[in-house]
Write a structure and sequence with these properties.
The protein is of the alpha+beta class and 235 residues long. Helices cover 15% and strands 45% of the residues. It has a single domain, classed as 60s Ribosomal Protein L30, Chain: A, CATH 3.30.1330.80. 39% of the residues are buried. Its EC number is 4.1.1.5.
Length: 235
């Protein structure tokens, strides 16, 4: 029986800030830790969303691809899905959605949200893959492509991280989106309104996995970086 109370995280958002963008875990290995998640590829190669064990990548052209087991990632969150219905919503804003979710849970633990329904004025992004020598996260993120849909049916998959873990993750919500037709998605920048069902899964354990076999990571001095500032600019 898989432990559905554990959130597995490979890498940290902090290591992306100075441009430590090597892929340090394969998709095959990542999927041994869950069937639901988000992440990005080596060199910030697109935005990933994993649903029911299938890893979808939204690349910088907007194409949605199913990636193979040898695809590598510098950062990912994954868990075994076991969601419970939290509420249903109709034509509410992203801000109101987040407000309602937080009113029924706690901001001091990790949880995942899955929202399926109809979304209006959706804006997403994906970054073009970069290669060594990598630029910083802020610089690399400038090469992002932005996509939008006036109305689309799909799924928002989100992780919420407590403030005390800001840097390891991004405090608050981190949203990714994929359409039901698997022809649109990415890191969610904004949405106008949503109508649909909201499900939640809370975790009591964070399993943090670090890329200790990557020498660039092991040798890097993070004390010179504005970790939190750069993370929040990029996110």
């Amino acid at each position: 029986m898989s432990n559905t109370n554990v959130l597995y995280q490979h890498g940290t958002l902090a290591l992306l800030v100075p441009g430590l963008l090597d892929g340090t875990i394969t998709m095959k290995e990542l999927l041994t830790h869950g069937d639901t998640g988000i992440g990005t590829g080596e060199g910030l190669d697109g935005e990933l969303i994993i649903l029911d064990g299938t890893p979808y990548q939204v690349d910088s052209t907007g194409s949605v691809n199913i990636v193979k087991g040898d695809f590598t990632l510098p950062f990912a969150n994954i868990h075994y899905g076991n969601y419970h219905k939290l509420l249903s919503v109709e034509n509410i804003s992203q801000k109101e959605l987040e407000k309602r979710i937080l009113a029924q849970t706690s901001i001091n633990t990790f949880f995942s949200i899955k929202v399926h329904g109809t979304f209006k004025d959706v804006k997403t992004r994906a970054v073009k893959k970069s290669h060594k020598p990598y630029d910083t996260l802020a610089k690399t993120a400038e090469a992002q492509s932005v996509f939008d849909r006036q109305e689309v049916s799909g799924t928002v998959l989100s992780y919420f991280s407590p403030t005390v873990f800001d840097g390891a993750a991004v405090a608050g919500f981190h949203h990714h989106f994929i359409s039901d037709k698997h022809d649109f998605g990415g890191h969610l920048l904004s949405l106008g309104t949503v109508s649909g069902d909201v499900e939640i899964q809370q975790f009591d354990t964070l399993e943090q996995h670090l890329p200790v076999k990557n020498q660039d990571y092991m040798d890097f001095d993070f004390s010179q970086c504005d970790i939190l500032g750069d993370i929040h600019k990029a996110e």
